[in-house]
Amino acid sequence: MLIKLKIFRFDPEKDETPYYQTFKVEADPMDRLLDCLNRIRWEQDPTLSFRMSCGHGVCGSDGMRIDGICGLACQKLVKRFKEEVLIEPLPVFRVVKDLVVDMVPFFEKYLSIKPHLLTKTSPPDQERKQSPEDHKLFEEAIRCILCACCTASCPVNQNKETEDYVGPAALVRAFRYLFDSRDEGSEERIALLDQKNGAWGCQTRWKCTEVCPKEIPVTKQIGQIKKRIYDAKQPKE
Q1: Which DSSP helix (H) or strand (E) runs through 25?
Q2: Under a CB-based contact definition with an 8 Å cutoff, are residues 141 and 176 in contact?
Q3: Which residues contact 173 (CB under 8 A, 6 or more apart)?
Q4: Cβ neighbours of residue 63 under 8 Å, at least 6 residues apart?
Q5: What is the pLDDT of residues 2-59, one digit of tens each?
Q6: How many Cβ atoms sit within 10 Å of the Cβ of residue 35?
Q7: Domains and CATH numbers, the chain
Q8: pLDDT confidence of residue 202
């Protein structure tokens, strides 16, 4: 089948404003949009810029907005689309070139929630053990591949007045450690999250959950963080 890809183009070194360019690609219905993008770069325009790595929905590097919805190009089959597909960079982020965006602010927010175990006791001779039941509490959260589709889709992050909101991806990782039985830094974590740009920045709009390529219940987990913060503030009997 013949498919058209209308692609956002912008090279800040030579373009004054962004524009769209349409490419025609012969594709099998079971091809992925990533295959089509690669074919364009290999056969039609080697200057087309986009990120990719594994091509199998594991690395999260090929996040982009496809027909208005953020997702991974490697997960989208050609047969799901009509004759023309609109391909744009992830919103919220500064465009570096074409479909490549600056992810530095995203990872700065991610690092701000301390995405690692906080411990006070001396490390054991072997690993810090955990029961399967305790592991299940955050099992879904560890599927996150940091593709930033949730953050780019979040109406709060898209609002200039609330762009300092840490974002759903960072909060999913915070959830992962806040509910990890091996972590010993709950008080420190709750203090980090109990902020207007932390967990309370979430307006429960569900866009993050809708677009997550790993089907993580992002909004639900942010709600559980809020409840954990609330419970921690209650007077102890």
Answers
A1: strand 19-26
A2: yes
A3: 110, 113, 115, 141, 144
A4: 51, 70, 71, 72, 90, 147, 148, 149, 152
A5: 999 999 999 999 999 999 999 999 999 999 999 999 999 999 999 999 999 999 999 9
A6: 18
A7: 2-101 (3.10.20.30), 104-233 (1.10.1060.10)
A8: 97
Pair of tokens at residue 174: 């915070």
The model carries a pTM of 0.93
Q: Let me know: does 98 contact 17? Beta carbons within 8 Å.
A: no
Q: Are 18 and 95 in contact (CB under 8 A)?
A: yes
H, E, C per residue of 181-221: CCCCCHHHHHHHHCCCCCHHHCCCCCHHHHHCCCCCCHHHH
Q: What is the pLDDT of residue 77?
A: 96
8 Å CB contact between 219 and 206 = yes
Average pLDDT over residues 83-87: 94
% of the chain residues with pLDDT over 70: 100
